[in-house]
């Protein structure tokens, strides 16, 4: 009898393939500067530390190296055209986060002038330039020199019809949105309980030692964490220049109905 059972087990093992566990997806977090990229980066590290491919200057981790299947790529600052020129695995999933470019500009200004770690010589030069300009002049300078690439990233994904996640919505519904995006849409292999735990741990007030959103610390990377802060810094001159250069994109992304703001 035992011999018969052994023979049956052997036959089954030879003819019935084992079900292999699902391979983790290759996940890309596409965004632009100052759209909560480091916030999402911290969440992804906590969820999948061993799979993270660290961001590199010039996006060389994607543009110059083969994509590692099953890995997680945070803070991908690329247009749709740039990313689609890369050979991606079939398992690749992506999600795109954008932010009101007016708040992006203000946040970028304070980051470049004060708080961002010096990771390249160019930042030393930029910080020196901003140090000799008034706030108004600094915003106008960055609007011409740096913000255009952020706007190109946004425009490319808007034109593609890609579902976009707004930073502003994440501030209010982080658990709901990220649970749907990371688990339901992108297939990230993590429990909902673990995801919620990590999201809560990385909220503004928890990573700033209890500082509430809106309480400013210019020297901190997490400076203020609010929506609409641009209203505190835009002068009529900055507003007019912004409308001329990027006003249409504000409408396309739903941040404004028209140019009467």
Please provide a written account of the structure:
This protein is of the alpha/beta class and 261 residues long. The protein has one domain (26-252): 3-Layer(aba) Sandwich (Rossmann fold), CATH 3.40.50.300. The protein is 52% helix and 8% strand. The chain has helices spanning 2-15, 37-48, 60-63, 80-84, 101-115, 121-131, 135-145, 147-160, 167-185, 192-201, 204-207, 236-252, and strands at residues 26-30, 72-76, 92-98, 164-166. Strands 2-1-3-4 form a four-stranded parallel sheet, with helices on both faces. Residues 1-13 have low confidence and may be disordered.
Offer a few descriptive terms:
261 residues, alpha/beta, Rossmann fold, four-stranded parallel β-sheet, 12 helices, 4 strands, disordered N terminus
> Helix amount, in percent?
40-55%
Provide the CATH architecture. Answer: 3-Layer(aba) Sandwich
- The spatial strand order of the largest sheet comes to 2-1-3-4
Largest sheet: number of strands, sense, barrel closure: 4 strands, parallel
- Our estimate of the beta-strand percent is 5-15%
Mean pLDDT: 87
In CATH's first tier, which class applies?
A: Alpha Beta
Based on secondary structure, the structural category is: alpha/beta
**CATH third-level topology:** Rossmann fold
Oligomer: single chain
Output the radius of gyration: 22 Å
Total number of strands: 4
Shape: globular
What count of domains describes the coordinates? Answer: 1
- Number of DSSP helical runs: 12
Task: Give a concise summary.
The protein has a single domain, classed as P-loop containing nucleotide triphosphate hydrolases (Rossmann fold, 3-Layer(aba) Sandwich). The chain contains twelve helices and four strands. The protein has helices spanning 2-15, 37-48, 60-63, 80-84, 101-115, 121-131, 135-145, 147-160, 167-185, 192-201, 204-207, 236-252; strands at residues 26-30, 72-76, 92-98, 164-166.
């Amino acid at each position: 009898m035992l011999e018969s059972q052994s023979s049956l087990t052997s036959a089954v093992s030879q003819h019935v393939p084992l079900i292999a566990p699902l391979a983790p997806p290759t996940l890309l977090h596409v965004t632009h500067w100052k759209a909560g990229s480091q916030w999402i980066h911290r969440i992804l590290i906590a969820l999948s530390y061993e799979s993270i491919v660290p961001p590199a200057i010039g996006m060389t981790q994607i543009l110059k190296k083969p994509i590692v299947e099953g890995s997680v790529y945070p803070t991908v600052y690329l247009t749709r055209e740039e990313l689609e020129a890369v050979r991606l695995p079939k398992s690749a999933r992506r999600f795109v986060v954008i932010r009101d470019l007016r708040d992006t500009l203000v946040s970028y200004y304070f980051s470049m002038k004060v708080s961002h770690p010096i990771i390249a010589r160019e930042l030393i030069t930029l910080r020196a330039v901003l140090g000799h300009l008034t706030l108004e002049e600094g915003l106008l300078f960055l609007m011409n020199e740096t913000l255009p690439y952020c706007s190109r990233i946004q425009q490319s994904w808007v034109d593609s019809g890609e579902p976009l996640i707004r930073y502003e919505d994440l501030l209010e519904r982080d658990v709901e949105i990220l649970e749907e995006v990371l688990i339901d849409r992108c297939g990230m292999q993590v429990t909902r309980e673990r995801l919620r735990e990590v999201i809560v741990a990385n909220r503004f007030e928890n990573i700033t030692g209890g500082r509430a959103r809106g309480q400013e610390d210019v020297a901190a990377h997490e400076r203020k964490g609010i929506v609409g802060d641009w209203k505190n810094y835009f002068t009529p001159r900055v507003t007019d220049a912004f409308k001329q250069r990027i006003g249409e994109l504000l409408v396309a992304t739903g941040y404004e109905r028209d140019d009467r703001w």
